Amino acid sequence: MGPRTACCRDPAEADVRLHHSRRKVGAMRFQTVGSALALLLMLASCGSSNDDPSTSGEDMAELAGTSWTATTLAGEDLDNERITAAFSAKSIAGGSGCNRYWRDYETDGTSISFPGSHALTKMMCDAKSMRQETEYHEALSNAETFDLSEDSLTFYNGSGDTLVAYVRASQELVGTTWNVTSYATDSGTVSPIVDTEMWVAFETETGLAATAGCNHFSGTYMANDGGLIVSELAQTEMACVEPEGIMDQESAMGDVINAFASYTIEGNQITILDQSGQTLLTAERQE
């Protein structure tokens, strides 16, 4: 038996097969890298999405520090500015058609609630105002969500029905005159003497005028972002003897004006505070 001869392929054929093999491996590597890249892009895309409803969209504007006037209540258009809402960090206050009210509120995203009972002054008004007042507090108690924009605020119940809608209350002072309804004295808060004129007018961008029933005041004021400072207050010097107590009222009015530090307008009412946040004066807009 002769010697076994090794069988060898054509070198050219071997080179072709080796070339195809290398191309196949290269293609597999390319597919692997491409798939990995696609996966990374997909994961990055998923990671960049935000499914947390509490932080989705633009940052929620704060209610605190805003003031509003109700325009609709329980589907009824309101024809006055008596229902108002002013928000602090944890509470809401305003007029509810007849009386002043205060109550706490809580928010979580677009959810809102008004836990606990509310405080209310005890005036009696006409039947329509009293009905609207009751409906308003029922609306607040039933509110579950809210929608807030630059110029509007709306509360909804759990079914998505509109309970009450507001527009932002203007805080503009220039050109307004306010009839005083109460003011602070050393002995407490009092109302003006019956049948006396007591008002404050912001006549120009810097000029203030006022009266307490006898003399007239004039001065300079600066107002900015709810802050209010009066300077250079002067008054005429008449002496009035009637009605009784008119000069005491005037003296108290001068002290109040000199202590102005901040203000809030809610509908047709203005509240002016001192530096400690105590109410100095409340007044209604003069039409």
Automatic annotation (TrEMBL):
Gene3D superfamilies, alphabetized: 2.40.128.270
**What are the DUF306 domain coordinates in residue numbering?**
61-165, 171-283
Highest taxon in the source lineage: Bacteria
Which protein, by its recorded name, is this? META domain-containing protein
Q: List the source organism.
A: Flaviflexus ciconiae
Source lineage: Bacteria, Bacillati, Actinomycetota, Actinomycetes, Actinomycetales
